[in-house]
Design brief:
Thrombin, subunit H, single chain, 6-stranded antiparallel β-barrel, alpha/beta, about 240 residues, 2 domains, 5-stranded parallel sheet, Rossmann fold
Length: about 240
């Protein structure tokens, strides 16, 4: 199920947004302070984030911070404004959509419908497929270290190993996925470590590759260009609802 986070203290906004999200089967979590929003955004992935910019202290700062962050930097962001933050200002902060108060169910629904395709596109980008393969990883002073993979997505991979002090910054990978007839080469950066010490890599550049999965192997579309390409990035601004 798609997941959304709403930062607001406005009960009417909460009522309207909850109703609209239920209609499109998006699960919603609510926080009422910027500190709670920062903690939640840093610890979990959300497909959409709705921020009450003007009626929650430092609400606008949350948008700027999440765009500079890692796990939710590409999430679809709705700025909810109340005659303080302008539409242009909200887009400059990093919002994809703007909802002015009072927020009506009709306008919120139209914005969600417009955003739905973008949300699904981003979900496909980070959806992880379990995989049984080994990557040869070069980072720091280490070269071609064989490390098992635990999953892969269009955006990156998770390594089945504990993090070391050298696992920061840029990294190069060579890996052979099940069903492929050639080695995949990619460049990336270390971006996260979970509670068990496992580490994640975000792709920054992927070498050209025509992916032809074997039967039963998940399709992971990474690149099909004559030149090396970067993974897709969802950007704004988008039309105001």
């Amino acid at each position: 199920m798609l997941k959304a986070l709403l930062l607001t203290r406005d009960q009417e906004v909460l009522r309207v947004i909850r109703r609209v999200l239920e209609m499109v089967t998006i699960d919603m979590e609510t926080v009422t302070s910027t500190d709670a929003a920062r903690q939640t955004i840093s610890s979990r992935k959300f497909d959409a984030i709705l921020i009450d910019c003007d009626d929650v202290q430092s609400g606008c700062e949350v948008i700027k911070e999440l765009r500079r962050g890692k796990s939710n930097s590409k999430s679809i962001v709705f700025a909810i404004t109340n005659r303080v933050t302008t539409v242009k200002g909200a887009f400059e902060l990093g919002a994809n959509f703007v909802l002015d108060k009072p927020v009506s169910a009709d306008r919120a629904a139209r914005s969600l419908r417009a955003a739905h395709g973008l949300i699904l596109r981003e979900r496909r980008r980070y959806h992880r497929h379990a995989v049984n393969a080994t990557a040869h990883v070069s980072y720091g002073s280490q070269r071609d270290v064989p490390i098992p993979l635990t999953n892969i997505s269009e955006g990156g991979v998770a390594l089945g190993t504990s993090r070391t002090s050298e696992m920061t910054g840029p990294v190069q990978l060579r890996l052979q996925l099940p069903g492929l007839n050639r080695v995949l080469e990619a460049k990336g950066e270390f971006v996260w470590m979970n509670d068990t010490g496992r580490v994640g890599i975000r792709f920054t550049t992927i070498a050209p590759l025509a992916m032809r999965p074997a039967v039963g192997t998940p399709r992971v579309t990474l690149a099909a260009s004559p030149d090396a390409v970067k993974p897709p990035i969802v950007t704004g601004p988008w039309p105001r609802a």
